[in-house]
Amino acid sequence: MTHQDISSTELQLLLSSCKELLYPNANRGLVETFLSKVDYNKLLRLIRRHQIAPVIYQSLKDFADKMSPGFSHELRGDIQRIQLKALSTKAFLYVLNNKLKEKEIELFLLKGIALAEKYYGDIGLRDVMDLDLLVEPQNLDTVIQLLQELGYSISGEYSTFSNKQKEFVKYIDYHFGFSKIKEGHPRYVELHWALRNRFGNFVLDPFICKQEKSTQSIVNQEYLLELSEIDNFLFLCTHGAEHAFYRLKWLVDIYMVYNKIDIDFNDLVERSISLQCSEQLVLSFKMMEIYFAIPIPDQILQLSKKYKISQWLVNYCTHQIMYNGQYCDSLVEKMRNLRFSFIMNRKGIFNKRLFMRYMTSPKDWSILPLPNSLFFLYFPLRPFLFLYRILTSS
Description:
Elements: H1 9-22, H2 28-35, H3 40-50, H4 53-60, H5 69-102, E1 108-110, H6 112-120, E2 131-134, H7 140-149, E3 153-154, H8 163-172, E4 175-179, E5 188-192, H9 210-213, E6 214-219, E7 222-227, H10 229-242, H11 248-260, H12 265-274, H13 278-292, H14 298-306, H15 311-322, H16 331-344, H17 352-357, H18 362-367, H19 378-393
Parallel strand pairs: 1-7, 2-5
Antiparallel strand pairs: 1-2, 3-4, 4-5, 6-7
């Protein structure tokens, strides 16, 4: 297991560059000092690992004469690809939204270019890996069909599932992934029909209270729904915390929003309790304190007395940020992540959704197709089908 030290020159340069984007010249001396000591190969790997190339480039562009030419060339190439990806995503979103309006289907934008445009000031300043969309469950199949008509392929074999199998997937999960390899289109789309409720955290249906709790984002002069500022901040905290902040980009998102909006911390605490994401809020502030030296507000400190965050949890998130390998790439990492998931799981042993995820899977269904009326048989047959897969694969 290899790590990137939190005090390493490379990581400190990344953090100083993020601060420089918000507060120009405030960290200029630190940035210049770090540039003279940095290992540019390590720095480039770290930037790509955490998907924060645009922020770093924007902060370092005035130091071009002090940087390695090879590093500058590689970083510029990454930036061009990221900007083209952002522009193609925005253009595709315009086309998709028009088609959805014809069918009177509303969608919420999650993270992505809406976050970049509103809080980073430019859609090209955030590396957008996919387009995250939220639709109401009753519109899911219609939007799936529309994405397929636009050339996207759904991950897995959802289109071949029986009605009972589709119902099961919708119950245990909250999103599907789509992919398309074509110039001028976002490569990946994540279609959500629920917000992060697998662990019982962030319990919100924004469609129910959209007039009260959401604002609108302009994309190509089109009005699109997004979460309200406070709900969006809590969603980012929940998303980042449930992924243990494996990518520094997710912590930078929280840092950027935190510095751009006026927060009434009493309202924030009350809303976090209502949405059942207080632990994730506390954990996010602890991580911002470690990496960005953000003082934890008194209201959050008071909240942390009720919703305690163990030192192990903080250490695990720090480990994930520093880890040089892939997410859960070894048995040890998988066991750590399993422990982390149990801690994050608000519903505990009574989390039916989490339990049902391990009771059957599409792999079982492909081995033994059963009619809807016999779907329940997959549960007792699970160990036998699992053993059959092991034997046949070997």
